[in-house]
Amino acid sequence: MMRVRSRLALICSLLSGASLLAACSRSEPPTTGAPVTVRRLTEAQYRNAVADIFGNQIVVAGRFDPIVRTAGLLAVGAGRATITPFGVERFAALAHSIARQVVAPGNRELLIPCQPAAPAAGDDGCATLFFQQAGRLLYRRALRPDDIATPLKIARAAAAARQDFYGGLAYGLQVMLTSPEFLFITENAEADPANKDVRRLDGFSRASRLSFMLWNTTPDSTLLAAAEQGELAGQDGLEQQVDRMMGSARFKQGVRAFFTDMLSLDDFSTLEKDTLIYPAFGLAAAEDSREQVLRTLIDELVTRDSDYRDIFTTRRTFMTVPLGMVYRVPATRPGGWAPFEFAADDPRAGIQTQLSFVALHSHPGKSSPTLRGKAIRELLLCQKVPDPPGNVNFDNFNNPNSPNKTARLRLAAHATDPACAGCHKLMDPIGLALENFDGAGQIRLTENGERIDASGDLNGIKFADARGLGQAMREDPAATSCVVRRAYTYAAGRPIDKGERDWLAYLEQSFADDGYRLRPLLRRIALSNALQTISKLKPEPRAGGAT
Amino acid sequence: MLTLGRRWISAGLALLLASAAAAPPSTGGPQTLAYVIANFNNAVYETQFMDECPEGPAIGNDEMWWRGLSRADRDKLTENGLVQPVDRRFASVLRGPKGEDVCWNPTVIKEPPLRTVQGVVSYGFNLDGSNDDQATPKSCPHKNFVSERGTPGVDNQMYRLLGCHYGWRHNGVLDTFGNEERRNSGRGVILMEITGVTDPRNSPDVRVAFYRAADPFSIDAAGRILPYASYRVDSNAGKPRYGAVARGRIVDGVLTTEPIDAKLPFYANSAFAEIQLRDMHLSMDLTPGAAGSVQGLVGGYYDFDKWWEYMLKIEFLIATGDWSCPALYTAARELADGYPDPKTGDCTAISSAFKIDALPAFAIHTTAVEARR
User: Fold this and answer.
1) Lowest CB count within 10 Å: A60, A98, B43, B211, which one?
2) Exposure of B1 by Cβ count < 10 A (0-12 exposed, 13-18 middle, 19+ buried)?
3) Is the pLDDT of residue A545 over 80?
4) In chain B, which residues have their Cβ closer than 8 Å to the Cβ of A324?
5) Closest A-chain CA to B216
6) What whole-number distance in Å separates Cα of residue B39 and Cα of residue B224?
7) Chain A residues touching B291 at Cβ < 8 A
8) A281 to chain B: nearest residue by CA?
């Protein structure tokens, strides 16, 4: 990728004419696309969808089957997720609970657009109206007649048996909530009338991609209407919807979801710290540290519209009392969040020095330069670090009586093993720069009485401490390339296809041209042809050979 | 707007860096250190009990009541001994001649004198500036102690008064319960803020303020108070409800303050109180111990009426605290040694000292607008 980008940049730099330059930087290269995806709703998407369709008062109490991270993102893993039999039971239980709440007195007046002729009997007309309205939002498309036939039939039978219209309606809604049409984002392609050689997402599928990319929730009624009327196929209509969505308060929710995925913040759900060693790092600090990095990113990249690279050097963040106890700084708004800025000479600068990084990528009772270095490589630079060999020997590193008092010295002894040295060279020089933060992320100057040397280097750029590491990351083109790739992959919900290399090079160049600002990047992706281009159908292999 | 400036430093980090060989450059300008007081105990000097209290432990309310009963009344009033002191505490105080509560009316009966401390060593300060036991313009005649380091002239008649009660001694129920209750309830949390710190080890001119926190303690899962928490200063219309400020200095890590008259917020044993001290002195070693904790001593002449008001508020604890109200009151009146009433000559305050343990914290000052949020 770096080679492609450099080549493109070289070509562009050689062009002298303004129009050619413009074409170089602004024309979206064609792509071959990739197949349509079928993605299971993530837990957050499920919760957001229910809240948006039925309201925040509906409690979604339950657990969800995990999704396996693929190509660095859960958004891609969702395209390979199945529903286990136990998962089906969970979804059924959730559907039952949600449906009961929707039809309960107090909610039914708001959520059901009509009143039955007789509450103790079925009312097909009213039930149909409800299923049409709710179903369109749940299924994220215009309904087909058969979409409501089954819910209606169930509702009718249940209402008759229970002599309760609303009870019957709940059963019908339960059918919709457990339908694959709701639980899976199923994309469909259509022929492009302008180019018969290319296929594209249909309007509703595009609406879903946009909505889950920018809002992490189901398309709203306006977006579905635009899809229904074919407006998303035209540039003006598409721009209108994308700008509306990016101007909405929900855009922050979407950006939060993207970075939650990119930074692997779901790992907080399994984070454990030894509270005897780190008494201040309790549950509240863990929860707040996850929120802190998201608030920092939203503030920098959405509210301030800053250069993406600033996230590696910014001293601005937000603070709570539980976090303040770990950072050992004041929280000026006890009980809530308050803006905070670390002093110019504070060792902390950049999200990689926040608790969400240094505590998350550590062991329960000690720091880990290796885990931190690996996380920087994989999460922030998109560089894969090979897994350790199965027979790796940690004796040198874990020896409590080691004469090597600091992690640097212990790792040096450990890395004398040639089987380990190769990968540790990728991780340790970066991770050791964060050694002034202990396993909970608290500042320390010494380890076992020995002064900590936090110097290191990143791809040949040497630095003295964590702030230097942040500066090196800021200057590393892999960092900006990484967020571009992740953003597009996240939006498409699938791995990058080999036919999209030029498009990504173009996207990276555009990102640079836009001052490395996230908003233009996401807007460009949302408006791109690449996002809606679907690869041609390959002929099905014949079964049974020649006849 | 919050009034926390850019010139703060966390107490722990400042001291950590100050003691480190290669500390980052100072941010410049005076700094602020703040602490939250975790434990607040009467300063009771203890070695062997009989060294300090050769007459034995002070006799409590229940025993006085019990000894005053006939055998028949003992059986009757205690259901043949089944009703324990803790459950008969409200009966035992009603032993005035007309059944009066002898805590609220401590002079209606006369009881044997309180057993008081006879030892010669005590924690505390020389509040009246005198090393002998004679009266001074601000003190009545009293018997001085010497400090644990041998310094004469220590004024701590509160120790003489309470030191032979099990309830007030080390791990006694009263201070222990008070500390735990503050920890659990979050009431009466005291903040100490030191401003003008040019060097955490040596600062010639600092200001020390005591505030009440508007937030409860931050505690961990084991119930321990956590250091470096932020606490809002309890304020009304932007003005701290408490805010006694003393001038002081730090020498070799030890903070001392000049005497001031101060009111300290206090809550213990289910009672809000106000420790009203005249000539309040403070001495605190700021060298951080475990979790950055520091220890010190605060003392002064405790206003007698304020002190007795607190005793009455915690009257329900006399069964576990082991004191006799009439004996305690009479002894306290006799031992009161500060600020004689110009008309009667009786002293209106009693010299006292308290040991305090504190943890580094942050005091958050809020304006009236911020407080309303």
Assistant:
1) A60
2) exposed
3) no
4) 228-230, 362
5) A334
6) 12
7) 279
8) B220
Handedness of CA A356, A358, A362, A367 (dihedral sign): negative
* Span A290-324, pLDDT tens digits: 999 999 999 999 999 999 999 999 999 999 999 99
* CA A481/CA A487 separation, integer angstroms: 10
| Vertex A149: Cα angle to A145 and A154 (nearest 5) | 165
- Helices and strands of chain B, counted as H and E runs: 11, 13
User: Residue B151 has which token pair?
Assistant: 């310094």
Name the residue of chain B whose CA is nearest to A320's CA. B230
Question: How confident is the model at residue A40, as a pLDDT?
Answer: 96
Q: What are phi and psi of A196, to 5 degrees?
A: -70, -10
Residue contacts between A and B (CB atoms, under 8 Å)? 77
Q: For residue B260, which of B235, B285, B243, B239 has the smallest C-alpha distance?
A: B243
Q: Following DSSP, what letter does each residue of A430-475 receive, concatenated?
A: HHGGGTTB-TTS-B-SEETTEEP---EEETTEEESSHHHHHHHHHH
In angstroms, the separation between the Cα of residue B106 and the nearest Cα of chain A is 45
pLDDT at B177 over 90: no
Using DSSP's 3-state secondary structure scheme, residue B284 falls into strand
Torsion of CA A286, A290, A296, A297, to 10 degrees: 160
Q: Which of B12, B16, B230 lies closest to A321 in CB terms?
A: B230
CB contact under 8 A, A334 and B230: yes
Measured from the Cβ of residue B79, the count of other Cβ atoms closer than 10 Å reads 10
Query: What would the two tokens of residue A189 be?
Result: 């392609």
Tell me the C-alpha distance between A255 and A419, whole Å: 40
Structure pTM?
A: 0.85
Pair of tokens at residue A237: 């209509």
- Cβ–Cβ below 8 Å for B10 and A329: yes
CA A182, CA A136: separation in Å to the nearest integer? 10
C-alpha separations of A137 from A208, A222, A248 in Å: 11, 11, 19
Mark out chain A residues that contact chain B at CB-CB < 8 A.
275, 279-280, 282, 321-322, 324-335, 338, 343, 345-347, 443, 445-446, 451
What is the spatial distance between Cα B10 and Cα B194, in angstroms, rounded to a whole number?
A: 11
Two tokens, residue B204: 């010639």
Nearest to A310 by CA among A72, A198, A450, A470: A470
From A358's Cα to the closest Cα of chain B, the distance in A is 19
Instruction: State pLDDT tens for residues B106-124.
Output: 999 999 999 999 999 999 9
Between A325, A330, A338, which is nearest B8 by CB?
A: A330
Which of the 8 DSSP states describes residue A332?
S
Q: How many residues does chain A have?
A: 547
Determine which of B193, B225, B230 to mutate to test the interface with A (most A C-beta atoms within 10 Å): B230
pLDDT at B151: 96
- Residue B16: list chain A partners with CB under 8 A: 443, 445
Closest CA to B354 of B285, B295, B309: B295
Dihedral sign computed on CA atoms, order A364, A366, A367, A369: negative
Output the pLDDT for position A462. Answer: 93
| ipTM confidence | 0.80
Taking only the tens place, the pLDDT of each residue in B266-291 is 888 888 888 999 999 999 999 999 88
